[in-house]
C-alpha cells in the first residue's frame, strides 16, 4: 500500500517454535484497526514487531515493515519508535519508572527533540491537558505511585503523543480499569484519533472496545490472522470459526443474542 504503516508476511520464532506466521496488516492514518483474538494468539508480539521491540529470545524470521511505502530496516524502525509510532503498553504502571516523577518522564522524552526548560514544561502541560488533566502543573511533581490506574493510562497516552507520532499502538487500554474509567479512556482515544488524524492499532481481547472504536477488525488465532473485515461486517457476519466463537462468547457474556 502507498500511505500508512504496513506489515507484510511477518514470521516470529523463539527457540525453533513459530509464534507468528504470515501476518500482514495495514494501518492508515485516521483509522482504527482492532487486533483481537484469544490469549496467546500473537497480538502483542505482532504489535511489538511493528515497533521493532521484540522480547529477548524472539526473532523476526521473515517480514517487512513499510512506512508510506518505504521499507524500514532495524535502524529505520528504531528511529521511528516514539517519533512516528507511539506505544502504550499493557498495564500502564509498568511503563513508568516508580522512582522518577511524571515531570521527569516528560522531560526525558521531550529532550529527544531538543525541548528543555520552560518550553518542555509548557509542552508537557499542554499534552496532559489534551488527555483531560485540568491542572497539569500539579501532576508533573507527582510520582507514578501517587496516580490511579486511569490517571496513569492518560499520562501514558500523553507521553506516547509527546513527539507527535502519526501512529499509535495501544495494547489492552482498558484492562484493570473500572467501567467509568474505561469509558473515559475509550472516549479519549476516539477524540485523539479524530483530532490528530492518528492511525490507531488497538490490541484487545474485548470486543466491546472494538465495537466502540474500530473501523476494521483483524482476528488472530495461533499466530495467524484468520479474518479481517470492516467492523460492521465482522459483527454481522463473522467468517472464520474462531471469530464466530469469539462473538458467541461475547454475546453470551453480555446476555445479548448474536445476530442471525
Ligand atoms: N518472550 C517470549 N518468548 C517465547 N515465547 C513467547 C514470548 N512472548 C510470547 N510468547 C508466546 O508467543 C505466543 C503469542 O503471544 P502474545 O503475547 O503475542 O499473544 P497475545 O495474543 O497478545 O495474548 P494476550 O492477550 O494474552 O496478551 C504465545 O504462545 C506466547 O506464549
UniProtKB/TrEMBL annotation:
It is a peripheral membrane protein. The keyword Lipid biosynthesis does not apply. The keyword Cytoplasm does not apply. GO terms for cellular component: plasma membrane. GO terms for molecular function: ATP binding; ATP hydrolysis activity. It is found in: Cell inner membrane. Transmembrane segments: none annotated. Keywords: ATP-binding, Cell membrane, Membrane, Nucleotide-binding, Transport. It comes from the Bacteria. SMART domains: AAA. Residues 5-247 form the ABC transporter domain. Belongs to the ABC transporter superfamily. This is Nickel import ATP-binding protein NikD.
